[in-house]
Design a protein that fits this description.
By secondary structure, the chain is an alpha+beta fold. About 30% of the residues lie in helices and about 25% in strands. Strands 1-2-3-5-4 form a 5-stranded antiparallel beta sheet.
């Protein structure tokens, strides 16, 4: 899934458009009712993610229950949360390494975990 596909997926599933709270390309998705974030998308250097690659990747951080964290982190393209609480958030690489169906599942989980 690309960043553009992520935006389209979230708009279709949750009727939510990205918000750009910083003066850059990074954005968030939040609930209209309680204003809580359920996803944050950023462009981050691979090395900042602990990966020995040159360049940068588009990522999305989503909330995930601590009991599910270990199972999800074993999947390709899933890492500990970058720039978020690593016990409650995970990072998904938007470079084709994570399965699109898994990304949609994790977006749904994050949306549900943050709706109250």
């Amino acid at each position: 899934m690309t960043k553009e596909e992520l935006i389209r997926t979230v708009a279709e599933r949750f009727s939510t458009e990205p918000e750009y709270p910083w003066a850059d390309e990074n954005f968030i998705f939040r609930h209209a009712s309680n204003r809580k974030w359920f996803a944050v998308a950023m462009r981050v250097k691979y090395r900042r993610l602990g990966l020995e690659r040159e360049g940068a990747a588009d990522i999305v951080d989503v909330k995930c229950g601590p009991l599910l964290m270990d199972a999800y982190r074993r999947q390709p393209g899933i890492l500990p949360g970058y720039h978020m609480n690593k016990d409650h958030w995970i990072t998904i690489l938007l470079d084709g390494s994570a399965d699109d169906a898994l990304i949609r599942e994790l977006l749904e989980l994050s949306y549900d975990l943050t709706k109250r």
